[in-house]
Automatic annotation (TrEMBL):
Signal sequence segment: 1-21
Naturally occurring in which organism (per UniProt): Seminavis robusta
PANTHER family: PROTEIN DIAPHANOUS
Protein's recorded name: Uncharacterized protein
Source superkingdom: Eukaryota
Residue ranges with Pro residues bias: 137-175
Keywords associated with the record: Signal
GO CC terms in record: actin filament
Segments of this protein annotated with the region Disordered: 131-175
Gene Ontology biological process: actin filament polymerization
Amino acid sequence: MRLSCSAILLLSCHGLQETAGFQLGRPYYRHYHQKVHRRLLASVMEDTLIEEEQMTRYIAEINRFQDLAVSTYEQQHKELNNIAAALESIRTGEPITDWEETVIPVATPTRQENGWTQPRAETRAPAWPPVAQQPVYEPPPPPPPVTAIPPPPPPPTISAVPPPPPPPPVSAVPPPVPPPPLQVDSTTIPTAMADLTGVTFQLEELEDRESCSTELTLETDNTVTLGDTDGPLFSQATGTWSVYHSKEEEEQEELLFDMSITRTFDAGQKSTDMGEFTFSVDRMYLGDVTKVGDRLAVTGTIHLVDELLGDEKIGFFNMIDNREESDEDKQFLYGRRVQTG
């Protein structure tokens, strides 16, 4: 509950007027009125709010003043000064510095003890102790300073680990020894690599049950030129070829054929999200060269080159000389196709 100072002032004026006017008379009341209410004038003008606890203390002072029975003018004057100081302390919240001690004798009834009457005089202290006599809160002493904990010693320095000795120098790998010169039987296989150079073949491929035929020429610089095809149309094709001699366990000499071809295809459309793009297909052809009469032929397998999985056989191929086939050549080549297919 909060009351304004103006409400407290009206209450105090009414109570003090009755008490002071009755006990002390009008002259002393005017003196008290001027002293007390002059101090409260600022609070009245500002209409400061007073807490319920302060209001209770204020009313208690007024009630105590009304109950005072003083014997002399001096004692009552001190009480009035104390009341004024208490009200001022309530308003400002500061401790009372001019509190005056008063001892007020109070007449009390006698008591009958053992047939005689013993008067009793009691001394009553003020009902509400002044603020100055109340114990003042003192903050606890500061804690003793905490000694700083010394920092931990730095870790011991770790000696630098010597670098590992350099690896021994790797001796240069000697270049591969070139294969021995071809010694070919002219009755079964070509007598030299020149027999294949510049020859145009018909390359027939069988891969994933799909077959196609492409015109192919083995150039003198060991490159491959692709011509017309009835398979997927490519935009660009490059390749290389070579032959080498091998000897099997039965001491039968053969001329082996090795060829790699890379085809580039165009795909996609500009109007689609993917647009146009290109991709390449690499194939490796491994086979052996044979000759029937004056005709050359190469038969073997097609391999997919994969860096992770390695080479994988995925089909078969035949390379047939484009010159007119004789009946003997047709019979031989047909047998080779059936055998490899």
